[in-house]
Design goal:
This protein is α+β, with helices and mostly antiparallel strands. It has one domain: Kinase associated domain 1, KA1 (TATA-Binding Protein), CATH 3.30.310. It has 3 helices and 7 strands. The chain has a 5-stranded antiparallel sheet. Strand 4 and strand 5 form a beta hairpin. Helix 1 crosses helix 3. The longest helix is centred in the N-terminal third of the chain and has 27 residues.
């Protein structure tokens, strides 16, 4: 019985490490969203995704994107960069990625899950019907 609990504990720790590794890879990868919104409106939607109660947790930062937001946190947090560019057929293309990170143990990034949730929220806002915004 003790062997089973030891195995379950080790399997749980390995599972959490693998999950965090996957979250980290998703955070640093570039997510691109095509939107029917013109670039100025898309930029306004992106900025709004960091407003409200979230404004306490995010601050503007320097970075390679059109919009750069840094998550406040221990050891500087993580910077999320977003570029908004016009598409040839109309609308805009929005690219999002973690441009500055704090790495732990060589593969874990601080606040990777938070960036992934912001990416998903921004994608939902950009692809939503204008009447639903």
């Amino acid at each position: 019985m003790e062997g089973f609990f030891c195995f379950a504990f080790v399997a749980g720790v390995v599972g959490v490490i693998v999950w965090q590794f996957i979250e980290t890879q998703r955070a640093v990868a570039t997510t691109t969203v095509a939107s029917a919104c013109p670039p100025a409106e898309a930029a306004q939607i992106v900025r709004g995704a960091f407003g409200g109660p979230r404004a306490v947790l995010w601050t503007t930062a320097a970075g390679p994107g059109t919009i750069n937001m840094r998550r406040r946190g221990v050891r500087g947090g993580i910077t999320m960069s977003i570029t908004v560019e016009p598409r040839p057929g109309g609308g805009s293309e929005v690219a999002m990625w973690a441009s500055e990170t704090v790495v732990y143990l060589g593969f874990l990034v601080n606040f990777a899950g938070v960036v992934n949730r912001r990416k998903a929220a921004i994608e939902r806002l950009l692809t939503a019907d204008p009447a639903d915004r």
